Amino acid sequence: MKQSKLLIPTLREMPSDAQVISHALLVRAGYVRQISAGIYAYLPLANRVLEKFKTIMREEFEAIGAVELLAPALLTADLWRESGRYDTYGADLYKLKNRDSSDFILGPTHEETMTALVRNEITSYKKLPLNIYQIQPKYRDEKRPRYGLLRGREFIMKDGYSFHATNDSLDETYLDYKHAYEAIFTRSGLDFKGIIGDGGAMGGSDSQEFMAITPDRTDLAKWLILDKSIADISEIPETVISDIKKELASWLIAGEDTIAYSDSSDYAANLEMAATEFVKPTVYTEKIDLVKVATPDAKTIDEVSAFLNVPAEQTLKTLVYNADGEIIVVLLRGDDELNEVKLTNHLSADFLEPATEEETVQIFGATFGSLGPVGLPETVKIIADRLVETVANATVGANEDGYHLQNANIDRDFKVTEFVDLRTAKEGETAPDGAGKLKFARGIEVGHIFKLGTRYSESMGANVLDENGKAKPIIMGSYGIGVSRMLSAILEQFARINVEKTFKGDYKFSWSMNFPKGLAPFDVHVIPVNVKDEVAVALSAEIVETLSQKGLQVLEDDRAERAGVKFSDSDLIGLPVRVTVGKKAADRIVEVKIRATGDTLEVNVADLAETLAILNQ
Q1: SS3 of 227, please?
Q2: For 53-216+441-491, CATH number?
Q3: Count of CB atoms situated within 10 Å of the CB of 190
Q4: Sequence ranges of the domains in the chain
Q5: What's the pLDDT score for residue 231?
Q6: In the chain, fewer beta carbons within 10 Å around the N or the C end?
Q7: Quick one: average pLDDT of 351-379?
Q8: What is the pLDDT of residues 563-597, one digit of tens each?
Q9: pLDDT digits (tens, 9 = 90+) for 349-362
Q10: Which of these, 8, 51, 52, lies nearest to 26 by C-alpha position?
Q11: CA distances (Å), 386 to each of 244, 251, 257, in order?
Q12: Cβ atoms of 481 and 247 closer than 8 Å
């Protein structure tokens, strides 16, 4: 492919509005261009990367019997009314009307559409299981689109759906998808973890997220590619190292989620779902008489702890929530934070938000900062985190402004409806399997699989007749991959800083892409330094022809640009191998540079194809 024929609008400087390095490089290297907020055009290089990733997906999905189709992106609102999501999905849902004033939406996901298709076409369990998927743009009206392709209003997604007559069949396909996803992300060169996830607005039971791990910014060895004139990092002056560290720190760490994982086992979960080991205490503590004390101007846990000189873990935090119209009281140990996702999932609530001050005063007779579980009406449901059981003689709000109670105890002074895991896990705590300590890392969600069960088939009447001729709702699974965000996830891991030593002895550094071999838009970048040199141009054409016949995809920079411009653009584009045809063209000698390592070597053109084959092993 001739570079002069491609649209690759590189920029000399990083875009000023980019906050994460992947966004900055995709724009600067001419891979994408923003059309409007959260909406991007994928230019030729980006499109080639996406198509390669799609090919990997299609190969792995064919291996598990998944069949590709294409559904419309413009959907009737009637289907979403059937499932109940038209009114509950939220403000992210694009709603519009046609000329007849009928309601439509732009599809953010396609559970309803696929359920309707199967409902209308399949009536017998004998035609199940069915495993289908599509790759298409999705639409969500993000309030604040940001981070380039990581949070947009239009994005490309692979969404798959399976339909089953039995839960055993769903379990089998769910496991197939798990293995397929692992193969896809491994083939893509991604550093990822499969973690316990939250189903969120999708509904359903079991789910697993696949998270691309954001690299540690403190490990310079992972980020630097050294010029051949630099033996190792120790040669680089401290002032340059300091500037590189500042450059790394200037970019936000991408990743919308925190991953909690064990340092000694396979346990990994989204922080929203992460648990810790819990051992119910058996040590007896004498219960002391309840005492009411004045706590003027002390409302927060820290203020109360300081005022009464008690540790935060000896206090109980009382929170009040409205869950689908029901007031719920939540108790936590004072040094813990509530995990609202855990509470929502435990209650199976569609709607959860903190209670208003008016609602709180009506029940407690006091305002926030003085609330406690003692003396509440028996009709009020009190849900406590498991660690609340470990606190004896606790300090709690007295339900009177400016006062607290000391030495409050469960059962004697107040009743708890149930104890469940509600707290947010902390780094360094023991993993729930008892093996190892929890560590935290930032991650970018690139895939998610769900066991939906009958969430959609029941509400939409998608039934099949079983072997006894009885109608039963179809059991479903849903499987998504963020295709366009893979571009950003890959670059967050594979962006590199090139450090080189100039002929004056100075050091300079610059960012570049470093795509894995399987996803790079081209395999080799051939650069004739001087397009007026007929020998070099002819040799370049020969190289392109030879490598193409060997199955390599080659980009030839045939532009009449200065060598510096060509090399700069080549670094930005980030192809795995660069072949420079320069002063030794008459001797049929070219320079080969391996981007991942920065290594260079001179090779005779007669040996070039074999050399590249060895390097690509």
Answers
A1: coil
A2: 3.30.930.10
A3: 21
A4: 53-216+441-491, 291-420, 522-615
A5: 84
A6: C
A7: 91
A8: 999 999 999 999 999 999 999 999 999 999 998 88
A9: 888 999 999 999 98
A10: 8
A11: 46, 39, 24
A12: no
- H/E stretch holding 4 reads none
Tokens of 244: 């590189």
Among 354, 394, 344, smallest CA distance to 200 is for: 344
pTM (2 d.p.): 0.85
Q: What would the pLDDT profile of 484-529 be if each residue is shown by its tens digit? A: 999 999 999 999 999 999 888 899 999 988 888 889 999 999 999 9
Could you tell me the CA-to-CA distances from 431 to 105, 266, 343 in Å, in that order?
43, 10, 20
Architecture of domain 522-615: 3-Layer(aba) Sandwich (3.40)
What CA–CA distance (Å, rounded) separates 396 from 373? Answer: 7
Length of the chain: 617
Instruction: Note the pLDDT tens digit of each residue in 259-285.
Output: 999 998 889 888 888 999 988 776 567
Nearby residues of 332 by Cβ (< 8 Å), 6 or more positions away: 316, 317, 319, 338, 384, 385, 387, 388, 422, 423
The answer to whether residues 48 and 522 touch, using CB atoms and an 8 Å cutoff, is yes
Residue 15, Cβ neighbours under 10 Å: how many? 14
DSSP 254-288: --SEEEEEESSSS-EEETTT------------PPP
- E strands in 125-166: 130-139, 154-164
Q: What is the CA radius of gyration of the chain?
A: 30
Both tokens of 411, joined, read 């059962």
What residues pair up with 68 in beta bridges, in sequence order? 133
The per-residue b/e assignment along 32-60, b for 16 or more CB within 10 angstroms, e otherwise, is: bebeeebebebbebbebbbebbbebbbeb
The closest alpha carbon to 74, from 106, 96, 103, 101, belongs to 106
What was the pLDDT predicted at 199?
52
The amino acid present at 99, given as its one-letter code, is R
DSSP β-bridge partners for residue 554: 524
3-state secondary structure of 568: helix
Percent residues over pLDDT 70 in the chain? 98
What pLDDT sits at residue 222?
A: 86
Which of these, 575, 595, 574, 591, lies nearest to 540 by C-alpha position?
591
Measure the CA–CA gap between 374 and 396, rounded to whole angstroms: 8
pLDDT of residue 284: 64
For the segment(s) 291-420, the CATH number from 3.90.960.10, 3.30.2280.10, 3.30.450.180, 3.40.250.10 is: 3.90.960.10
Token digits of residue 210: 């696949």
